[in-house]
Write a structure and sequence with these properties.
By secondary structure, the chain is of the alpha+beta class. It has 10 helices and 12 strands.
């Protein structure tokens, strides 16, 4: 990776439109239990290796230079596995109207994933990334999502980024937690209803799950799980005080069942939600 030799394969970017419906049965079965969706847009650029990536239950062929947009709410592979060929992919996660996380992921079926967080010193690139964030968050994506001005601007932005990667390089993940973790926190607080699995948050941050957990705890003095739980309880308390029912407050804050919400609430506050609300009204 040090010399980024994959750039020789990226003379021109193109949209990925090739579906492979002859996906091996074992891979389809893996997809059923290992897919997820997000409230944000994701974009992946294949840098090296020919491989399949699952989107909506179908295999999407990716080869160097192909670009795939995954709109909000579209189910896709939640990671790489032995069913994925060796590859290097550049991922963009448009988390909020003000932040995009950019990561390079190297996958080999015989070894663990390698995550590298990408940052840029060039102000123009960061400004264009911010503009892309606003485009993705302010209006529905066209159909197909790469059509029109959005698609043309995105291709321009991706080419600009690829041309500058060797100039500005990759930030070592050991030093980038202070930059990334605040944006992950912001994403969590705006998406409490999502599943918010550690592995998914780590992938968005560009870290391994172990490193993400360690960095989060170092910076925030708490674990990701405790932070998510606390934010969900804060949101539920706000909803209860605004007149929402216990059931509504629980589900809208990301708790999967009412018993789970009641147990968690009592563990933190010492009383059940109804008793807490009565105490607040006295």
């Amino acid at each position: 990776m040090a010399n980024l030799m994959w750039q020789e394969n990226l003379s021109a970017l193109r949209w990925s439109v090739r579906l492979n419906r002859a996906v091996p049965k074992a891979y389809r079965e893996w997809m059923r239990g290992n897919s997820h969706s997000h409230s944000f847009t994701e974009v992946v650029v294949c840098l090296a290796g020919d491989h399949l990536y699952g989107v909506n239950g179908d295999g999407r062929n990716l080869s160097p230079g192909e670009v795939l947009i995954i709109p909000p709410g579209v189910r896709h592979d939640s990671g790489y596995s032995a069913h994925h060929s060796a590859c290097t992919d550049l991922w963009f996660h448009f988390l909020t109207p003000a932040h995009v996380s950019v990561n390079i992921i190297e996958h080999s079926p015989s070894s663990r994933l390698v995550f590298r967080h990408v940052c840029f010193a060039e102000p123009a690139i960061n400004q264009d990334l911010q503009r892309a964030c606003v485009l993705f968050s302010s209006a529905p994506l066209p159909d197909p999502p790469h059509a029109g001005k959005v698609g043309s601007f995105l291709l321009f932005l991706l080419q600009e980024i690829l041309e500058n990667l060797t100039v500005y390089g990759l930030r070592d993940q050991r030093t980038s937690g202070n930059v990334v973790i605040p944006h992950i926190k912001e994403y969590i607080t705006h998406n409490l209803g999502e599943r918010l699995k550690l592995s998914d948050l780590a992938r968005v941050a560009g870290f391994s799950p172990f490193h993400f957990h360690r960095e989060f705890r170092r910076i925030e003095s708490t674990t990701p799980r405790n932070f998510i739980e606390t934010e969900r309880l804060k949101n539920a308390c706000d909803l209860l005080q605004r007149g929402r029912s216990v059931t509504s407050a629980a589900f809208d804050s990301g708790f999967t069942t009412c018993p789970q919400f009641n147990r968690t609430f009592k563990k933190h506050f010492g009383v059940a939600p109804v008793a807490w609300l009565k105490g607040r009204s006295l």
